[in-house]
From TrEMBL:
<dbReference type="Pfam" id="PF00248">
    <property type="entry name" value="Aldo_ket_red"/>
</dbReference>
<feature type="domain" description="NADP-dependent oxidoreductase">
    <location>
        <begin position="23"/>
        <end position="255"/>
    </location>
</feature>
<feature type="active site" description="Proton donor">
    <location>
        <position position="48"/>
    </location>
</feature>
<dbReference type="InterPro" id="IPR023210">
    <property type="entry name" value="NADP_OxRdtase_dom"/>
</dbReference>
<feature type="binding site">
    <location>
        <position position="104"/>
    </location>
    <ligand>
        <name>substrate</name>
    </ligand>
</feature>
<keyword id="KW-0521">NADP</keyword>
<comment type="similarity">
    <text>Belongs to the aldo/keto reductase family.</text>
</comment>
<feature type="site" description="Lowers pKa of active site Tyr">
    <location>
        <position position="73"/>
    </location>
</feature>
<dbReference type="InterPro" id="IPR036812">
    <property type="entry name" value="NAD(P)_OxRdtase_dom_sf"/>
</dbReference>
<dbReference type="InterPro" id="IPR020471">
    <property type="entry name" value="AKR"/>
</dbReference>
<keyword id="KW-0560">Oxidoreductase</keyword>
<dbReference type="GO" id="GO:0016616">
    <property type="term" value="F:oxidoreductase activity, acting on the CH-OH group of donors, NAD or NADP as acceptor"/>
</dbReference>
<dbReference type="InterPro" id="IPR018170">
    <property type="entry name" value="Aldo/ket_reductase_CS"/>
</dbReference>
<protein>
    <submittedName>
        <fullName>Aldo/keto reductase</fullName>
    </submittedName>
</protein>
């Protein structure tokens, strides 16, 4: 395993298991299989409605809690009462702390939500703070008003959309990028690019493994998700080879500055703030 060092000194595994769109029982089994395969980073969110399942998967694995880097996220409707939301999420995950707590969307009173996370950080209930889906100007807004600067930003990133400009900005604050959709939302045209096929043959890997290795060497923490135990193992089998600088540059030429998920801040506010979710109503 390779690690990113966050701007507060915390070490974070470069690859973890994602649980987006997994039902509670699926999340439990996926987390269990991942931890058994050697993963030590688990990513979930209040809005995924599977935190209880994630907590069960961690307990079932037998891996010590202190050896796991656990990530979850607060939903915009929780920002106003962030302290309660944080206590609730800890109960659902059946843990005393989370390693990284993230604001899930850049809408609503995100400054109040971030302040609540800072208080939890000071209390030892959170080890690192992050932002998800925040555009650069709203990341800067948080930085301008915060006491503890974020350690992590989670956004869509892949070879077609490598977030070059954002990463240059984050580097100024020693913030790490965590990539969702690391394989381009399963886009066969991306994973099937000739450069990945060529390198897969060279290294005895799959195309997907080459893409994931590119992320790690580019400094992106990745959280590919799967319900399939074999895919979970395959996705993790990327730490026994290294792409050359020339190969990294060749992959870099795939940049189309094109993302798969597009939603304006106005639409995000309208869609996400209207959702009334009972996050405790999960199995």
């Amino acid at each position: 395993m390779e690690y990113a060092v966050l701007n507060n000194g915390l070490k974070m595994p470069m690859e973890g298991i994602g649980t987006f769109l997994l039902q509670p029982a699926e999340a439990e089994e996926s987390v269990y299989q991942a931890l058994k395969a050697g993963y030590r980073l688990v990513d979930t969110a209040n809005a995924y409605m599977n935190e209880k399942g994630v907590g069960r998967g961690i307990k079932k694995s037998g891996v010590k809690r202190e050896d796991i880097f656990l990530v979850t996220k607060l939903w915009p409707t929780e920002y106003e009462d962030g302290a309660k939301a944080i206590e609730d999420t800890l109960k659902r995950l059946d843990t005393d702390y989370v390693d990284l707590l993230i604001l899930h969307q850049p809408v609503g009173n995100y400054l109040a939500g971030y302040k609540a996370m800072e208080e939890a950080y000071k209390a030892g209930k959170v080890k690192a703070l992050g932002l998800s889906n925040f555009p650069q100007e709203r990341i800067q807004d948080v930085i301008d008003h915060c006491e503890i600067k974020p350690q992590m930003v989670q956004v869509e990133a892949h070879p077609y959309y490598p977030q070059t400009e954002l990463k240059a900005y984050l580097a100024k604050y020693e913030m790490v990028l965590m990539a969702w959709y690391p394989l381009g939302h399963g886009d066969k045209s991306l994973v099937g690019e000739e450069v990945f096929t060529k390198l897969a043959e060279k290294y005895g890997k799959t195309n997907a493994q080459i893409v994931l290795r590119w992320h790690v060497q580019a400094g992106n923490v990745i959280i590919p998700g799967s319900k399939n135990a074999d895919h979970i193992k395959d996705n993790f089998n990327i730490f026994d080879f290294t792409l050359t600088d020339g190969e990294m540059a060749e992959i870099g030429k795939l940049d189309k500055n094109t993302r798969y998920y597009n939603m304006s801040l106005e639409d995000a506010a309208k869609n996400y703030l209207s959702l009334q979710i009972d996050f405790n109503a999960q199995e």
